[in-house]
Structure to design on (368 residues):
């Protein structure tokens, strides 16, 4: 696993014109995988994820000039990624409405179309179960379950109270359990 | 590449899940999705290229936005590899057709040229010799078939005037008679 500089050093490199690109590349390399999986869990499809992630990384490049360290770099980048992903899903929903397609079923179909999909494996059932949740609940569950994000950081990211996030997470976990047991 | 997240290290999160249900002890947090090989190694390069492309767009947008609405497709074309044109093909076949036509007309004219018959050859034929080469039976059968064509020549024997002849003999001298007899033989 590659060692990465801390966020402060990377930001300092980015602020210096002579090391700007080096600083940016360091930030991308450090966070690209976490951002990728944050988006992929929501969109399922790799190509869609790639499109959104590239858009996110370009926005990060454009926004880093004005980034003030009043929030954590990672939280700021996660917020951009979350907003871009939700915007993408909204666009897909509009397109699906026009083509009389069903959004949720569409994502579950995408999961079933994945390479190595096996409906008898618990890991795949879990993905189908997560996709049966409302989007905000999916986000909360993913951030807590996969990214192990503390509630206070999640609260900053999603601009929701910690109590509400905790309740949402517990409800999501119960729904998922029920889904898996019934399927 | 299958993505594997490490099992929960955060005991708070794990214990939180176990308070919800013991069911969560049976699950792990592995992601079963696959990522193309070398994707994360190349991503920052691709993104840098996209950023540069966007910078060019943004720069032009501030100077002459109309130009950004025009597609950047290349209108020029490389000259195509030299090909045999249809006209060339037509000319080739036309020349061949004319040549064949000339040959055909020439052959026709040559074959239909009026033949000069050399009648002198026939005239010089020795008919007696020719008749000798034909068998008698062939001649007879020819005469049988063409009986109507073969007519007996109308030979009229003049009536012999004995008195005139006698007087002529009497009037002739012996020398004259001898000369006649000799010439008759």
């Amino acid at each position: 696993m590659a060692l990465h500089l801390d966020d402060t050093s990377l930001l300092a490199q980015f602020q210096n014109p002579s090391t700007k690109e080096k600083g940016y590349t360091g930030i991308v390399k450090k966070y690209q995988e976490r951002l990728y999986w944050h988006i992929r869990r929501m969109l399922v499809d790799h190509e869609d994820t790639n499109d959104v992630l590239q858009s996110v990384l370009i926005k990060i490049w454009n926004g880093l000039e004005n980034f003030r360290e009043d929030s954590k770099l990672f939280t700021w980048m996660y917020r951009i990624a979350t907003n871009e992903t939700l915007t993408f899903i909204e666009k897909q929903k509009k397109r699906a409405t026009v083509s009389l397609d069903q959004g949720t079923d569409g994502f579950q179909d995408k999961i079933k179309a994945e390479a190595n999909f096996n409906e008898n494996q618990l890991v795949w059932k879990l993905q189908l179960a997560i996709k049966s949740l409302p989007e905000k609940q999916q986000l909360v569950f993913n951030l807590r379950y996969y990214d192990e994000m503390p509630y206070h950081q999640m609260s900053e990211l999603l601009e929701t109270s910690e109590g509400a996030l905790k309740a949402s997470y517990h409800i999501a976990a119960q729904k998922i359990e029920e889904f898996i047991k019934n399927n | 590449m299958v993505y594997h997240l490490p099992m929960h290290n955060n005991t708070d999160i794990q214990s939180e899940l176990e308070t919800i249900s013991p069911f969560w002890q049976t699950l792990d947090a592995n992601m079963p999705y696959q990522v193309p090989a070398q994707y994360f190694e190349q991503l920052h390069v691709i993104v840098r290229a996209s950023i540069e492309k966007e910078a060019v767009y943004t720069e032009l947008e501030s100077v002459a936005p109309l130009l950004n609405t025009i597609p950047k497709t290349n209108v020029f074309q490389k000259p195509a590899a030299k090909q045999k044109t249809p006209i060339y093909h037509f000319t080739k076949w036309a020349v061949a057709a004319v040549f064949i036509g000339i040959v055909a007309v020439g052959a026709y004219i040559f074959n239909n040229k009026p033949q000069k018959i050399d009648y002198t050859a026939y005239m010089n034929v020795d008919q007696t010799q020719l008749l000798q080469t034909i068998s008698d039976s062939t001649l007879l059968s020819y005469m049988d078939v063409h009986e109507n064509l073969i007519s007996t020549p109308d030979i009229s024997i003049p009536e012999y005037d004995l008195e005139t002849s006698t007087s002529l003999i009497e009037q002739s001298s012996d020398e004259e008679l001898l000369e006649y007899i000799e010439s008759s033989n």
